[in-house]
Write a structure and sequence with these properties.
The structure holds two protein chains of two kinds.
Chain A lengths: L2 E4 L13 E4 L4 H11 L3 H5 L10 E5 L2 E2 L15 E6 L5
Chain B lengths: L5 H6 L1 H4 L5 H10 L1 E5 L5 H11 L3 E5 L24 H12 L4 E5 L8 H5 L4 E4 L4 H14 L3 E7 L2 E7 L7 H4 L12 H4 L5 H18 L8 E6 L4 E6 L21 H7 L2
Parallel strand pairs in B: 1-2, 1-4, 2-3, 4-5
Antiparallel strand pairs in B: 5-6, 6-7, 7-8
Helix pairs in contact in B: 4-5, 4-10, 7-11
Chain lengths: ~90, ~270
């Protein structure tokens, strides 16, 4: 069973406008790599050059911040819901 | 202190009828002092509704003037206000709505050198600014002055709201540890925004402000509300205080305001 990944508005240009995509992975790290495989360019928007999640991007596994778990090595399973939410500043 | 007359009781009757507000809560609203950072897409509805609610003192920081492209969403301004300072335009609109409200205009850009003195005169701060340096500045100033902050932001179809209550929950820096690099930061001017979106976000913030004033309900403290307008998806996400937060953590390194333009540049 795949993991539901919600794509934030600023990154939807990579997914052809799709707000949600489905990915199979065992960890957040693998999930990001698979996203990159399917939608080239996305990883750079999510991760620094050293592979860690950028500090202005938050990833939530079932509404919990992965930084409060095992960060990029947090395990995921089918049926989980992932939200990628970057900081925005418009007023 | 604010004293009710007959008109006040009529004007605020729908609040007074609410057991959670009542006369006591309405008086708290009439005595409250709220500072709005920005009288734009978010600040406009916040100012208008808080004025209608009777918030006694509304401060507005904004150095910009009203432009035609603002009127798609900044409902406190109108055609007659083009070219006028937004804070002054907002004040004039509010004065037509409710003379119980005192509006104080701060026709400056919020900065490390002025914000602490301005904030000192208010009970609650609402951030509806349009850039990261100001957002980090306002967060740090509120934490350092121990003032509750409702921080809201919009981008295209996405809105986010968090309420920061210093010493009780996480701050904006705990939510987003660093700002994006300037070249990845698009403003509404460059990226667009659905006109009603800052209205939705602003009214969520105004709701938080009124709850804080009357002391009822659960604010978005330790939670961030993320709203995706296209899917009509409202989602509350848990935000934990970061013990290593430079401003509200266990060993803070930011004990006075820094240069935020520089901070938003040098991280990259």
């Amino acid at each position: 069973m795949a993991i539901k990944v919600r794509i934030p508005t600023p990154m939807r240009s990579f997914t052809g406008g799709a707000a949600e995509v489905h990915i199979e992975a065992a960890t957040i790290r693998e999930l990001i790599d698979k996203l990159e495989g399917k939608y080239p360019g996305m990883k750079e928007r999510i991760c620094d050059s050293d592979g860690s999640v950028r500090l202005y991007v938050n990833i939530y596994l079932n509404d919990e911040d992965i930084r409060a778990m095992d960060d990029i090595d947090t395990p995921v399973k089918g049926g989980d819901s992932i939200h990628i939410i970057p900081a925005i500043a418009g007023g | 202190m604010f004293e009710f007359n007959e008109d006040h009781i009529k004007r605020y009757s729908r609040h007074i009828l609410l057991p959670e507000v009542g006369r006591v809560g309405q008086k708290k609203i009439n005595n409250a002092k709220v500072l709005l950072v920005g009288a734009g897409g978010i600040g406009a509805p916040v100012a208008y509704y808080l004025a209608a609610a009777g918030v006694g003192t509304i401060g507005i920081i904004d150095a910009d003037v009203v432009e035609l492209s603002n009127l798609q969403r900044q409902i406190i301004h109108s055609m007659d206000d083009l070219g006028k300072h937004k804070a002054i335009s907002a004040k004039e609109t509010i004065e037509k709505l409710n003379t119980d409200v005192t509006v104080i205009t701060h026709l400056v850009r919020a900065s490390s050198s002025n914000i602490m003195d301005i904030i000192a005169n208010y009970d609650i701060v609402v951030d509806g600014s349009d850039n990261f340096p100001t957002r980090y500045l306002i967060n740090d100033a509120c934490v350092l002055s121990n003032k509750p902050l409702s921080s809201g932001a919009v981008f295209r179809f996405n809105g986010q709201v968090i309420t920061v209550i210093p010493n009780e929950g996480p701050c904006y820096r705990c939510l987003y540890r660093e700002p994006p690099p300037p070249d990845m930061t698009a403003s509404c001017q460059e990226a667009g925004v659905l006109g009603v979106l800052p209205g939705t976000i602003g009214l969520l913030q105004a709701t938080e402000v009124l709850k804080l004033i009357i002391g009822h309900g659960d604010p978005l403290c330790g939670q961030m509300l993320n709203y995706e307008a296209l899917e009509m998806d409202f989602r509350k996400i848990k935000v934990k205080r970061n013990p290593n937060c430079p401003v509200c953590g266990d060993n803070p390194t930011i004990t006075e305001l820094i240069d935020y333009e520089e901070f938003c540049r040098v991280n990259f």
